[in-house]
Amino acid sequence: MPEFDIIRRYFQEKTHRNDIVRIGIGDDAAVLNIQTDTNLVVAVDTLVAGVHFPLNTTPHDIGFKALAVNLSDLAAMGATPCWMTLALTLPQADELWLSEFSKGLFVLADKFHVALVGGDTTQGPLTISIQVGGVVTKDKALLRSGAKPGDVILVTGMLGDAARGLQLLQQQDSDIPDEYLAQLNRPSPRIAAGQQLLDVATACIDISDGLYSDLSHITTASGVGAIIELEQLPLSPTLRDDAITQSEKYRLALGGGDDYELCFTVSESQLAATQTRLADIEVPCAVIGCITDGNSVMLHSSEGSEITTDTLGYQHFT
Fold first, then answer.
1. pTM recorded for the entire structure
2. What is the pLDDT of residues 173-198, one digit of tens each?
3. What fold is seen in the domain 152-311?
4. Helix, strand, or coil here: 20?
């Protein structure tokens, strides 16, 4: 199938428009309307087959996750999603694959009113790059650099399920709980939670490479330290009942990655209000520690669990 037929059939005809988009797909570039009282927030992520998702992942799940991981970055900034561009590299123009991929992509795009405004299609190893744009009230975006000693550290949702699912897939386990696979393949971007945190959180980040690694980005940017209470890490009932050791469960929650939850800090005076806001939108959150003086992230366990921190978190080229 020719390149422009792919664009028209599977992407241009399925996207919707919103007030931000003046000119979308069809010209050399998109033209977007930006209001003077807002800041534009932009993020981009690339997913490579065999690196960011197993080779046997369904095209529907690939499309869903490719957008979800980008929207998670906007959520961490407290932004409202508006548009995206898609650069899609395919080994071949498989019509069934394209149909399912675009369905997964637009399930999430339609939910968050994200317009596809352009991109590129090329032939080569399967790679998906999506850039997303959103808006936030001027000078109100959540950053990594505002945490202060005495702040409380919280996370949304549960940690470790996606990493455990990937672990079992790599072990070719034939009986993987649906909860693990759902979190791995179809993470839910915390857009509404990020918006609720706009005027209460002192710092925020999304958890993509693992809690320990991503919280370290907050402490580095803010010039502070942190203590994580291992017993307070939010684990799903499925992971709590898993046959692996408790230390392994903590390791997955701390460094497994692919959670796409929010890790954020608030002052003690704002803790109750923050918990109420998130409860009102039915987003679970857990207090997992506190910000301290210093420059390192420390782990504390009353039960003596030993975790090696230099193995926590994912980094490319290592």
1. 0.91
2. 989 999 999 999 999 999 999 999 99
3. Phosphoribosyl-aminoimidazole Synthetase; Chain A, domain 2 (3.90.650)
4. coil
